[in-house]
Amino acid sequence: MEPVIDLNCSLPSEGTFLTPFALIWQDILAQAMTGELVAALNYTALSTICDDPAEAADALEHAAGEQGHAAAFAAEGRKIGVDVPNNVNAKHWKRLREAFMRRIAERDFIGCLIVQEIMLESFAVASYARAGKVAPGSMGRTFASIAAEEEEHIEHAMAILRTERALDAQRFDDKVHGLHLEVMTTLAEMLARECTHGHCEVCHDSCVKPSLSEVSLTAAELRGASLRQYLKTLDMLGLPGEVTLAWVSQLPV
Amino acid sequence: MGESVAGVAANVAQQAPAIDVDFALIGHQECWRAAADVLAVLRGPEHPPLPDDEIRDIFPWIPPRAICHVEAGSIAGGKARGVYIDSFIPPDRLDANYMRDNLARVRGAAAYAIKAGAKIVSLGGFSSILIEGNLDQLPERHGTVFTTGNTLTVGFIVQGIKKMCALEGRNLRRSTLLIVGATGDVGSGCARCLAPVVKRVLLNARNMERLRTLAAELEADGVQVEIATGLQQFSAEADVAICAASLASPSLLLGRIAPGAIVCDAGYPKNLSPSGQMAGAKIFFGGLGQITGGLRFKPDFQGILNRHPFPDVVHGCLLEGMALALERRFEPFSQGRGFITPERVEEIETIAARHGIFLAPLYNADGPVEDGVECLAGWSAG
Ligand SMILES: NC(=O)c1ccc[n+]([C@@H]2O[C@H](COP(=O)([O-])OP(=O)(O)OC[C@H]3O[C@@H](n4cnc5c(N)ncnc54)[C@H](OP(=O)(O)O)[C@@H]3O)[C@@H](O)[C@H]2O)c1
Question: pLDDT tens, B177-208?
Fold first, then answer.
C-alpha cells in the first residue's frame, strides 16, 4: 500500500540487521503513525471551524504535534531497520476520519472534540502506554512519552467538554452516545482480537495481531486497556458509569 | 439500551447526585457464569451473549462502577435507594497473587460509592477482607460510612444452624462445633455466639497464634475448646460445622466429620469443594437473608446479582447496609476484625427484622433443604 504522507521513511541502511521482531514492530508503528497522521489531519480541519482565533491556533499547534509524533514513530522504525508505512485511507482509519469530517461539515466543534479527544485519544493513550512498557530501548521511551503527552493535552478538551455538559447533561450524553455508536463501533472492530473482516490495509503483510504475543503484547490487552481508558475518560466527564459500561459492553467483539 | 441516557443519568450523578443515594453495595461475581450473566444484562436482549473467551478477556479490564440502582422496601413503610457497584474482580483472581490489583479495585469501588453520595456502604464478599485496615486510604468521605456487613452475616449463619438443627431434630447443646476460618471476622463472631450453646468447639485456621488468642477468650467463659491448623488433627469428629474461611475458590475438603453432620458453607465464593464426599451431610449455604418489603433492581438484575432459588434473597453483608439505611442509621456498624459479639448480633437482627429482613429459606446446590419450600422456576446452582 502506498503511504499517503511521506515522512522520509528511508530503507534500512546497509549493514543493518533486522531483529526477529522488527516486522512486528513495523506493523505496530505503522498503526500508531497512521493514527497520528489522522489526528494531524483532524486538528488541521478543526482549526478551520474554530470561531476563536486562539482555539484555531491551538488546533494547528496540536496538528503539528501529532505530525511530530508520526515522525518520531517513523524514526523509531528506522532505528530497528524498517520502513514504517502509513495509510490514512486504510478502511478503518478512513471511516474514523469520515466520521470526524462529518462533524467538521456541521461545524460541530464539540462533536469534533468528543471524537478526537475522548474516543481516538483514549485508544492512543492506552495502547501507546502498553507498547511503551514492552518496546525495546528508545522505542519504548517514545511510545511512553507520546502516551503521556497525548494524555496531557486531553485535559484542555476535558475542561471545554465539562463546561458544555454542565449546560445540558442530557443533550450532551445523548450526543456522546450517538458518536459512540458511529466511532467506537469502528474502533471496536479495529481492536477485535482477530481481524475477521479482511486485511486492515495498514499491516505490511498478514494481520499482526496473532504475532503480538512475540513482543509481549496481545490484541485482547490493547482492546481492554483502550476501552478502560475510554470508560475512565467518560467518568471524568461525569457521564454515569453504568450507562457507559452498557454502551461499551454492546460494542462488537 | 432500553432507556434514554438521560433517564439513567439522572439517577447516579458523578458530581452532584440528583437523587439521594442512601446506600451502596460493593460486590464482585462469584463465578464466570455470574460474570457472563452480568454482561448479558448490560448488553441487553437485542445483542447475542458474548462468547466465554471474550468475557474472560474483557471482564478484567472493566473499572469498578455502578451497574444498577437498587430499591429496598421496609415492611414498616419507607424505602431506601442505593446502587450496586461491582469491583469487577475476575472470579478466578481472588487469591493472594492478585491482592494489589484487587485492593485497587475495591478502593476504586469505594471511591465510586463516595462520589455517588452514598450515606452507607456495605462491603460484600472479599471487598471487606481486602479493604479492612485500608479504609483510611480512601478519598475524603463527606459523610459516607462503611460497614463490612459481617454482624448480620453472623446472625444469619447462627440462625441457620439453629434452624437446621431443629429441622433435623438435633440438640445443639450436645454438639461438637467445628469452625473453619475461625479467627476471621465472621468465624470468630460465630464462635462467640455459638460456643456458649454447644458442648465443645473445634477451631481451625492456618495461623496458630491467632487460634490460641481466640481459644483463650472462649475458654475464659468456660467453653471447651480445641484448636488445630490441620483439619485431621482434631481429637473428635464435629457434628456441626461452619465453613467461613476466605478461600479464593471452593476447595475445602472437610475430611473427618460425623456422618450426617450439619454443615453451613458461609463462604463467598463457597468454601466446600464440589468433589468433597461427606456421607449424609446436611449442607446449607449460610449467611443469607430475605428482604420481604420488596427489592427492585434497575436495570433488572433480579436473579443475576442474587443467584438464589428464592426471591429477594441477598447476602447478609449487603443486607446489613440496606437494613441500616432503612433504619436511617448511617453508622459503621461492623468495622475492624474480631469485634462481633452476641449483643451486636442481636441488635442488628432486631433492626433488620423491624424492616422485614429475615433469615432466608435454607438451600444448597440441590435446591431447598426444607420440605414443602418451592424454589423459583428455572433456578439452577452455579
Ligand atoms: N454469606 C455472607 O453473606 C458473607 C458475608 C461476609 C463474608 N462472607 C465470606 O465469609 C468468608 C470469611 O470472611 P471474613 O470477613 O471472616 O474473612 P477474614 O476476616 O479475612 O477471615 C478469614 C478466615 O479464614 C482463615 N483462612 C484463610 N484461608 C484458610 C485456609 N486455607 N484454611 C483454613 N482457614 C483459612 C483465616 O485465618 P488464617 O489466615 O490464619 O488461615 C481467617 O480465620 C469469606 O469467604 C467471605 O467472602 C460471606
Answer: 999 999 999 999 999 999 999 999 999 999 99
Say whether pTM exceeds 0.80. yes
The DSSP code for B246 is -
> Stretch B336-361: mean pLDDT, rounded?
97
Reported as type and span, the H/E element at residue B99 is helix B99-115
Q: Which of B9, B54, B61 sits opposite A243 (nearest CB)?
A: B9
Compute the C-alpha angle B92/B98/B101, nearest 5°: 115
Strands (E), B173-271: 176-180, 200-204, 225-228, 240-243, 262-265
Backbone angles phi, psi at B227, to 5 degrees: -125, 150
List B residues 45-104 in contact with A (Cβ-Cβ < 8 A): 47, 50-51, 54, 57-58, 60-63, 65-68, 83
B63–A170: do the CB atoms touch at under 8 Å?
no
- Identify the residue whose cell numbers are 478502511: A91
Cell of A235: 467518568
Q: Among partner residues A228, A247, A250, which is closest to B61 by beta-carbon distance?
A: A228
Distant-in-sequence, close-in-space partners of A190: CB < 8 Å, separation ≥ 6 = A92, A200
| B178 neighbors B204 (Cβ within 8 angstroms) | yes
Give the nearest chain A residue to B61 (CA atoms).
Answer: A224
Nearest to A173 among B6, B58, B112 (CB): B6
Distance B130 CA to ligand 1 centre (A): 11
pLDDT in tens, B299-344: 999 888 988 989 999 999 999 999 999 999 999 999 999 999 999 9
Chain A to chain B, count of Cβ pairs less than 8 Å apart? 95
Atom of ligand 1 nearest to the CA of B187: 16
Q: How confident is the model at residue A45 (pLDDT cuts 50, 70, 90)?
A: very high
User: Is residue A248 predicted with pLDDT exceeding 90?
Assistant: yes
Strands B79-86 and B120-123: unpaired
Domains annotated on chain B, with CATH: 5-151+289-361 (no CATH), 154-286 (3.40.50.720)
Per-residue pLDDT for A173 more than 90? yes
Complete domains list, chain A, with CATH: 20-249 (1.20.1260.10)
CB count within 10 Å of CB B99 equals 12
Q: B314-350: b or e for each residue (b if 16 or more CB lie within 10 Å)?
A: bbbbbbbbbbbbbbeebeebbbebeebebebbeebbe
What is the ipTM, given to two decimal places? 0.89
Q: How many CB atoms lie within 10 A of CB B373?
A: 13
Contact B282, B260 (CB under 8 A): yes
Nearest CA to ligand 1 atom 44: B246
pLDDT digits (tens, 9 = 90+) for B198-246: 999 999 999 999 999 999 999 999 999 999 999 999 999 999 999 999 9
Q: Which atom of ligand 1 is nearest to the CA of B183?
A: 43
Interface test with B, best of A222, A243, A244 (most B CBs within 10 A): A243
CB B62 within 8 A of CB A228: yes
CA A168 to chain centre: 28
Chain B segment 281-310 residues within 8 A of A by beta carbon are 299
Note whether A238 contacts B: Cβ–Cβ < 8 A: yes
